[in-house]
Structure formats: structure tokens, C-alpha cells
Amino acid sequence: MSEENKASNTSRPNAAGRPRGAFGGRGGGPGGALGRPVEKAKDFKGTLKRLLAYLKPQRVNLTIVVIFAIVSTTFTVMGPKISGNAMNQLTDGFIAKSIVSGIGGAQPDLKSTLKKYTDAISSAKKAADAAVEKGLTQALNTQKQKAYAQAAQKVDAIVTQKFNEAINTKKQQAYALATQKADAIVTQKFNEAISAKKQLAYTSAQTQAEAAAKAAVDQQFAALLPGVPRSSYGSIPQYVEALKQAYVKADAMAKAGVDAAFAKQQPTMNAQLAAAKTQAEAKAKAAVNAAFIKQQPTMNAQLAAAKSQAQAKAKAAVDTAFAKQ
After folding, report:
1. 272: CB partners within 8 A, 6+ apart
2. Tens-digit pLDDT profile for the chain (325 aa)?
3. In whole angstroms, what is the distance from residue 66 CA to residue 62 CA?
4. How far apart are CA 302 and CA 294, in angstroms?
5. Cα separation, 86 vs 18, whole angstroms
6. Own/partner long-range contacts of 282-291 (Cβ < 8 Å, ≥24 apart)
7. pTM for this structure?
């Protein structure tokens, strides 16, 4: 574009009558945009596409430029690090050479010192190992003894409880058997006594009833046979039959009377039997208690043996648990 066209474009007024600046802005010159907001592209995507289209012929050159820029940046970053590593290697070599030279002069003393140092470290390590082992052993023994005590206490309680339960069960069974036996004996003796008493009552009542019946029959036959002596009535069949029937009736009435009397006394006899049973049961329980007291030393020995066996098992279980740990 010629200088005249540039000048004409620069000084050409816009639609509003104001001259355009050198860059197409309003107000002429760069100072014309101060104080006003920056204008944004109305079509950013379209502008970007046009820009890429403009740069497309130069993509090979741009790619080469980008690659060289990356390589240059990499060298710029890695160069100081590589130089530093090289300096470190040189410095370490110099220091190592200096140390070797110094050690070569003091080698005899250094060997002695190193030997003493090694011996001291070995002794300290052995002492530390012994102390740690001793402390660990003591701690394990303490813990094991505590576990022994807890296990023994627990099994003692369990064994004692089960042993007492077994003894109580056995004692209750003995109570039941003894009271049952005592009740049977008391009931048998009481019934035998009542039966004997009833038989005596039967005999006495029958004797009295038969005497009264004979007197009545004798009086009846005396009225029928006034001149016949009573000693001769035994030879009269009618008298014998009448006396026999009178005896039967008298015996039945006597027995019924005795039974009624005993039935009336039944509550009293039942109370007497219950009291006798209670007394016999108390004696039976006292006998059982005495027998168990007599067996107490044997039972104590059995309990001690059971505790010892349980404690041995508990100790073995604790040892097994510690062995697994």
C-alpha cells in the first residue's frame, strides 16, 4: 500500500464524521482508546478459524519452532542439574581422596580405635539383649503367673459350685429316700396300732353285745319255758338257733358301732399320723445330716482332688495359649 493510501485511510473520517486512527480505532492514535472499555471480537470462533487458516501454510515452520523451544527449555532446566551433579562427583572424589590419605597415616591408631569401638558395641549389644531378654522373661513370667492365678480361681469356683450342687442333689435324694422310708414305717406302725386298737374295740364291743343278746334270749325263753332251768337251754334247738342269730346281729351292731366311733376319730388320728410323720422325717433328716457330716472329710478330700485336677488342666491351657503367642 502506498504512503498516500495510508495517509488517506488514516485521515478519512468515519461514519460519525470523526477521523480514524492509525489502527482503525476511534479518536485517532493509541491515546484515543484510553478511558474506554476494550472491544471484544464479536465472532471469536470465526476469527480463530481465519487465524488458523492464515497460519496453515506455515505449520511446518511453526512445528519446528515449537520443538526447538521445548528442547531449549529442557536444556535450560537440566543444564544446571547436570553441572551440579558433575561438581558433586568431583567434590566427593576429592574429599574421599583426602580422607584416604589421612587414614593411611593414622591407620594403626584407627584400627585399634575401630576394634575398641566394635568391642564396645558388641558388649553393649550383648548387655542390651540380655537386659531385654531378662525383662521380657520377667514380664512373661509375671503375666503367666497372673493368668495361672486367674484360671485357678475361676476353675476353683466352678468346681466348688458343681461339687456343692452334686452334694446338695445327693443330700436331697437322701432326704427324700429317708423321709419316704420313715413315712412308710410310721404309717405302717400307726395303721397296725389302729388295727390292733380296733380289734380290741371289736372284741370288747362284741363281748358286751353278745352278753346283752344272750341275756335277752334267756329272758325270752324264760318267759316261754317258766319251769325249765336256764342251764338246760343249751339242749333246746330253738334256743341255740335264736342265740346264734342274736349273736350275729349283736356282733354286726357292735362292729358298726366301733367303725362309727373310729370314723368319728379319723381327723384326730390323721393329725396324730401327720405329727408322727413330721417327727420321723425330722429324725430321718437329722440322721442324713449326721451321715454327711461324718463323710465331710472324705468329701473335702474329693473336692481338693477335683480342684487340683482342674487347676492342672487350667495351667496346661494357659501354657498352650502362651506357647501359641
Report:
1. 190
2. 444 444 444 444 444 444 444 444 444 455 545 556 666 667 888 888 888 888 888 888 888 999 999 998 988 888 888 878 878 887 877 776 666 566 555 566 666 777 777 888 888 888 888 887 888 788 888 888 888 898 988 888 999 999 999 999 998 999 899 999 999 999 999 999 999 988 999 899 989 998 998 889 888 888 888 878 878 888 888 888 988 999 999 999 999 999 999 999 999 999 999 999 999 999 999 999 999 999 999 999 999 999 899 989 998 998 898 888 7
3. 6
4. 14
5. 67
6. 283/182, 284/175, 284/178, 284/179, 284/181, 284/182, 285/175, 285/178, 285/179, 287/178, 288/171, 288/174, 288/175, 288/178, 291/174
7. 0.46
CB 176 within 8 A of CB 284: no
Q: Could you give the angle at the alpha carbon of 316 between the alpha carbons of 313 and 319, nearest 5°?
A: 155
